[in-house]
Amino acid sequence: MNIENTKAQMRKGVLEFCILSVLKEKDAYTSEILDTLKNAKLLVVEGTVYPLLTRLKNDGLLNYRWEESTSGPPRKYYGLTENGKIFLTELNGTWTELSDAVNIITNQKSQS
Q1: According to the model, what pLDDT value does residue 36 have?
Q2: Are 27 and 56 in contact (CB under 8 A)?
Q3: C-alpha angle 19/60/46, rounded to 5°?
Q4: Boundaries of each Transcription regulator PadR N-terminal domain copy (predicted)?
Q5: SS3 sequence, the chain?
Q6: Which of 39, 43, 58, 34 has the alpha carbon at shortest distance from 10?
Q7: Which of 60, 64, 78, 85 has the lowest tally of Cβ within 10 angstroms?
Q8: Counting beta carbons within 10 angstroms of the beta carbon of residue 20, is it exposed (0 to 12), middle (13 to 18) or buried (19 or more)?
Q9: Distance (Å, rounded) from C-alpha 36 to C-alpha 70?
Q10: Cα–Cα distance measured from residue 64 to residue 79, given in angstroms and rounded to the nearest whole number
Q11: Which residues, in sequence order, are CB contacts of 67 under 8 Å at separation 6+?
């Protein structure tokens, strides 16, 4: 079994949740989102994030606006819709439950 593949699958599973969480405080453009994820040690590439942002937008969880940039072409800023905020709140609850359950299981002492 390839451990790197398993680790990559685990990261992919939480990427949507992390992107929505990045956008809960303020709108951001793609490179800001990528920087935030990288600073948290969640290494992803643009080729993974762009399709996910498009899917989240198509699902009605994100919207975007174009904003002029002083250092290049206009930037597309993503933000949460009202549905996105509700969805993120539900994901937060699910994450807490799942995280607690995994911690209980992985930290159990073997019973003699």
Answers
A1: 95
A2: no
A3: 35
A4: 19-89
A5: CCHHHHHHHHHHHHHHHHHHHHCCCCCEEHHHHHHHHHHCCCCCCHHHHHHHHHHHHHCCCEEEEEEEECCEEEEEEEEECHHHHHHHHHHHHHHHHHHHHHHHHHCCCCCC
A6: 43
A7: 60
A8: buried
A9: 21
A10: 6
A11: 29, 74, 75, 77
- Do β-strands 28-29 and 72-80 pair in parallel, antiparallel, or remain unpaired? antiparallel
pTM: 0.84
Structural domains of the chain ordered from first start:
12-100 (1.10.10.10)
Let me know how long the chain is.
112
Q: Is the CB of residue 63 less than 8 Å from the CB of residue 81?
A: yes
12-54 pLDDT, tens digit per residue, is 779 999 999 999 999 999 999 999 999 998 878 889 899 999 9
